[in-house]
Amino acid sequence: MSERDRKKEPALAENDTQAVTKRQVSGRLLRNWLLLAGLFTLAIIVSGYMISPLSEVNEVSVDGNTEVYDQTVLENSGILSGDEMLDIFMNRGDIGQKISAGIPQVAEATLKVTGLQSVNILIKEYETEAFLLNEGEYYQVLENGVILDQVIPRASSSGRPILVNFEQGSTLERMLEEFQDVDERVKSLISEVEHRNSERNPMLIRIFMNDGNEVMASIPTFAERINYYTQMREAVDGQSGVFDLEAGAFFIPFDSEVNEELDLLDENEELTEDEDAEE
Q: Fold for domain 128-278?
């Protein structure tokens, strides 16, 4: 190799390095340009969407509700046609809490975006566990112990008992907890539950059955003992009377002298309670 050729080699190597560097720089510039172009295009699309009618709520549907009206849910949600879909999506949790806080029968409300302009509200309701009879008017009692303010027509026999002399509070809540543990077959036989609230036992209740029998029981042990009702009824050969389950399991036929004394005691107790109330 001549001296001239040896001098050319460093020059060629330097040129190759410069070419590689230029290609790398060009590649980075191209990637940066594509990234900026993509972001710019995305910004244009988002801006166009936000100012277009496609970004506004056009349809709101309600599912899962059986007793609460759709319109009631919509009014409590505060969602209006024309509201921004993005705002609804970002605040969906707060809107759901607003609905459940505003409607006593709603246990949970979940919002989902189901389309570019559509929102769905899924409702989970508290079940109606019983009906409260107060001064001749009926009110729904929910499974969480809340008594609704709205008066309803006379409650029909729907497997839900009529509650008498109950008030919203711990006693009613305990009664509903016990009632949920009653077997469905026995539950369908219960017509009315009267809170006796005697001085001897503030948790005393009298249950009126659809077959004409009555049951005396204490709320804390109500479910455990009433679940044996069908067996106890068979054991007395179809006689009608009072099953006393407060402290055990006793049966008193309606036509027995013991039952007459029991009725008399009940009447005297009611008179005493009325006199105390007047004082």
A: Rossmann fold (3.40.50)
